[in-house]
Each structure stands twice: as C-alpha cells, then as structure tokens.
Amino acid sequence: MFKRVLVANRGEIAIRIIRACKELGIEPVAVYSTADKQSMHAKIADRSICIGPPQPNKSYLNINNIIAAAEVTNCDALHPGYGFLSENPSLVESCTKNDITFIGPPRDAIMLAGNKSKAIEVMRQNRIPVIPGSIGNISDLRQAAKISKRIGYPVIIKASFGGGGKGMRICNNQKELSDFLSIAISESRSSFGTEEVYIEKYIPKPRHIEFQIVADNFGNIRCAGERECSIQRRHQKLIEEAPACILNGKLRKIMSETAVRAAQSIGYQNLGTIEFLLDGNHNFYFIEINTRIQVEHPVTEMVTGMDLVKEQIKMAAGQKLRDREWGKNNGVAFEFRINAEDSQNNFSPSPGKITDYYLPGGPGVRIDTFIHSNYTISPFYDSLIAKLIVWGNDRREAISRSSRALEEFTIQGIKTTIPFYHKILKNEKFMEGNIHTHFIEEELGV
Ligand code: ADP
Questions:
Q1: What does CATH list as the number for 132-201?
Q2: What is the pLDDT of residues 292-343, one digit of tens each?
Q3: Does 292 qualify as catalytic in the annotation?
Q4: Cβ neighbours of residue 442 closer than 8 Å, sequence gap 6 or more
Q5: 245 burial type by CB count under 10 A (0-12 exposed, 13-18 middle, 19+ buried)
Q6: Given this model, what pLDDT does residue 139 score?
Q7: Among the options 252, 292, 337, 395, which is catalytic?
Q8: Which CATH architecture best describes the domain 207-444?
C-alpha cells in the first residue's frame, strides 16, 4: 500500500479522498491555492502545501506545481479527484516520469475517453450500441447535412473533446444545422482547444443511466450497479439516484454486461463510468466513458456498501478485486447537488460569505461538504458547495426522507439550490419515477 498520497484537488472531493487515505493508514498531503489557505481540506490533511494563486490555471491546473508538491513531500501516489486535471493524460505522463503512481486508469484509456467521437467509434467496432451519427468528426457542412438527412432531424452537434454539458447544439432542421455548425466549431475551439465536432441523432426525452465499473490491474472488471442522472439542467446533472427505477432485472443485466464489455474492449483499469442514454422504447446507447471518480459516486456507495475511493486506491496499489455480490443493491439513494446558485434568478452564481448554516442528520443522511461558518465561497471555483445524499429502504422512503433533510438544511448568507429541490420532490411525475433529461425544463419551466 502507498505510504503518502498527494490529493491534487480541493473542496468536498479533496476531503473525501483525505478521509479514505486516513482510514487506509495512508498519509494524505493536501494542495491549496492562496484562496484556499483556510479551507477545510488543507486543515485536515497530514500536511498541506501551497501550489499557487487562486486562478485555477496557476494552481490546481498547473501540472509542474502539482508534481513539485508531490516530490517535495515524498508522495508515492497522486489522487486527482474529479474536474481539474483528473482526465489530463499529461498529468499521468508526468506522474510516470517522476515515479509517482497515478490513482486512475492508464494514460491511453484517458486519451481515448477524452476524444468522444473516437471512443464511440471504438465502441461501435466492438458491437456496443451507439447512437446513429457521423463516423468520426465532421469536416464540413455538406457532409454534416448528408449525415443529418440520413439519420433524420433533430440532430445534436457535439464537441469531441467537450465535457461538463458544454459544447452541444441541437438542430431541428437543415437551416439550424447550417446556422449552428460554425458556431459549434468556434465554441469547441475556444472552450476545448480543438475544432473537432461530431453529429448524433438527438434522442427525444431520454433517460441518462450510467454504470459504475471497477477494474483491477489483472483484467478483472466488474459492474457495481447503475445511477440514473436524468434530472439535469442544461445537460448538467442536479439530482442522481441509485438504482435506476426504470430498469427491470433483465434490462439491468443486459446493460451492466454491455458496460463491462465496453470496459473490457479497451482494457480498462481502475474506476470508470460507462454512460448510456435510454430511449422511450428501452433501447440504450453508449455516449461516453468517464475515467475518474464521479461527483455522484456516493449514491452507489449508499446502496452497495462499498467505499469506491478506497477501492480506487487499493486497485492502483496493485490489489486484486475481492469477491462480493456484484450488482446487489440495498434500498434507494438520492444525491442533491447543493450549488451556490440563485435558482430564482436563472441559477446565477452566488458567491459570498456563509454567515450561518445547519446540516441535516438522522438516519440515512450523508453530507459531503467543505463549508463552515464564515467560509467565503470563492468565485474562482465550481459552485458545488455540498452534496446531500439520502438513503431509504425504498424510493418512497428515500423521497420523504430527502424532503425532511432538505427542510432541515439551512445555509445563510448566500443563495443555494436547496429551495429548488423542494419543488422537484413535490412533483407527481418525479415521485412516480416518470423522469427524463428534459424533466426540469418541462415540469418547472427553467
Ligand atoms: P458531457 O460529457 O458534456 O456531460 P454527454 O455526452 O455525457 O456530455 O451528454 C450530457 C447530456 O447531454 C446527456 O446526459 C443528455 O442529457 C444530453 N445528450 C447528449 N447526447 C444526446 C443525444 N444524442 N440525444 C439526446 N440528449 C443527449
């Protein structure tokens, strides 16, 4: 096992990794920017080291500073968390060069997953169902129009190197395609540094269902169940749940076996997520692989009893997967992303000082956060300030427990997404599990 791990992240995920390290008897070393000097993750680690000024590209995205921090503190491994450099192949290369184990998949898997159109192509070749669309990237409008006509409108233009729900344009007809293609290309260039875009058939009101893959370094690949992430706003997840209530035993089995096959086809190692869209006729299609721990991993932990971050560390240290009842769930769990955003004002960012707060508790309630009284939310970083994770024996209990936990949850001084979730939990269709990726737009009009 590792002796000392550099936690190359901030916020709740840094704390989550520090906790796992401590429980495994590993010394966690935190990194922080000058804006985060007083942050909880920097306080609770065994050691913490400053890696630069508040701007992410000068600190949390600066590979040289991060590797230097690992070197001077003699870390033998590095955990990247999610976001920031977690899916950056250059960080993996730098770790390898400096004899530091990267806690994540091999560089080649990250490279492939980062190029979404290429990943789809590899999956297609391995007979994993994919959405009808362009084979590889689109080179010009003529080709885009020809493909769109063949697959039928609406279509979606996606940035090959896109992520975080950004870089997508829906086109309902050829006129929109010709209007949006050049915009999509220039957005891709400015946000992701390349002009590579591809086209897919746009699936109306799909459900987003993703499978948690756990793989050791010896070719053993298993699926730890699925999460449904259909409650999204502008393609960004807000509420996730496990298991997905739409799946029956047979469909779950087929989808999880397909997810394992997808991971096997690229020799995957460590933790990963295979994302699918499920259409109204229960056809499912691969959309992408995420090669990191996901924000929503706790819902899987709540229903499986696994500690995914510990698994991740153990596998990177060369341990073999243990036998367990893979695919067995106990109860239902929800995660609510508590963002510092004003949900009554177009979800605009709401940085500032938390003057007071109260965290909910009681049976089945877990909170992953880094906030404390008088903590000032920095405008430099992501708006996620807490995750409320709620478990119940069944979906009905999980929903009523979520309502009471959200009622208890108080954050003063800034606006958060808490009031918005009350509205969702009261919605009949949500209660029935009748959800899809346009649910928020249709039911709540935002
Ligand atoms: P990102 O990596 O930016 O999260 P994804 O490819 O995972 O992008 O897609 C994010 C979300 O966008 C999906 O959960 C879904 O809501 C929507 N989406 C993506 N592709 C399609 C599609 N072909 N049809 C309908 N919705 C889609």
A1: 3.30.1490.20
A2: 999 999 999 999 999 999 999 999 999 999 988 898 899 999 999 999 999 9
A3: yes
A4: none
A5: middle
A6: 87
A7: 292
A8: 2-Layer Sandwich (3.30)
